[in-house]
Amino acid sequence: MNENNHYAIEARNLNIYYGNFQAVRDVNLTIQRNKITAIIGPSGCGKSTVLRAFNRMNDFILNSRVEGEILYHNKNIYDPDVDAVQIRRMIGMVFQKPNPFPKSIYENVAWGARINGFRGNMDDLVEETLRAAALWDEVKDNLKKSALALSGGQQQRLCIARALAVKPEIILMDEPCSALDPIATLKIEDLMRELSQNYTIIIVTHNMQQAARASDFTAFFTMAEDRAGVMVEYGTTNQIFTRPRDQRTEDYITGRFG
Q: Would you list the domain boundaries of the chain?
């Protein structure tokens, strides 16, 4: 068996540029299957850039360029013959600010499945994914109601359900709780833990406590002198937070707690 089969996705010698500016330098990162991996670090260190590279969302940014490889099922997702739309179906994304469509709760879940050619029982799929996103009991009697009428935390769980409806393998989350109150945040964290039994989750977060509570593995990024983002250290979350090997990791973690 190729060792890459142990991993959900793997970055090798990843360099990302916006025009002449190098945003990320020489990142090598292996993401374990069915685990939650947190990417932490100060603002501007390339966390979200790396996350977006995992499903080619950077393709939408003018003058962005990727060098190196991101291997998914032993294939570089940046190879010319790879369909980026298919990659984004298998590697879903949940954004910082909840962004439900201005449609009903039902249609928010059904829409993505429909355009991806789902031919099964849509009512069953909607219920299944809303249950998986821990939202069904709260909305089952109001499926025709506008998604925009939900609370922020409910909207974010609806966006997670929408991502799940197209049956991805990996879910990327870019600061999914930064716009939410502490109670809604804990609900999302509980949901992530439950989802990780069936999905691989990669989360970018500024919240040290969240990374420590919710993730299995943590990658710490910082900014080099030329402002390029570099990965300093990667390990189990317990090791990163209790026995960091690099002084920069320790300085960041201890300086930002509390």
A: 3-98+170-256
Query: pTM of the predicted model, to two decimals?
Result: 0.94
176: alpha, beta or left, given left = phi > 0 and alpha = psi -120 to 50?
alpha
Between CA 240 and CA 249 the distance in angstroms is 8
- Give the span between the Cα atoms of 26 and 99, in whole angstroms: 32
pLDDT in tens, 204-253: 999 999 999 999 999 999 999 999 999 999 999 999 999 999 999 999 99
Cα 228 to its chain centre, rounded Å, is 21
Distances in Å between the alpha carbon of 22 and those of 15, 19, 174, 224, 229? 7, 8, 21, 11, 8
Instruction: From the options 3.40.50.720, 3.30.70.890, 3.40.50.2000, 3.40.50.300, give the CATH code of 3-98+170-256.
Output: 3.40.50.300
Nearest to 191, CA basis, from 159, 224, 160, 233? 160
Q: What is the residue whose two structure tokens read 């990658």?
A: 219
Distance separating alpha carbons of residues 29 and 22, to the nearest angstrom: 18
Cα–chain center distance at 65: 20
Distance CA(140)–CA(104), nearest Å, equals 12
Residue 132: pLDDT above 90? yes
3-state secondary structure at position 8:
strand
Name the residue with tokens 């026995």.
Answer: 243
Distance CA 145, CA 139 (A): 9
Question: What pLDDT band is residue 4 in, cutting at 50, 70 and 90?
Answer: very low
Strand spans (E) along 148-246: 170-174, 200-204, 217-223, 229-236
Residue partners of 42: CB distance under 8 A and separation at least 6: 222, 223, 252
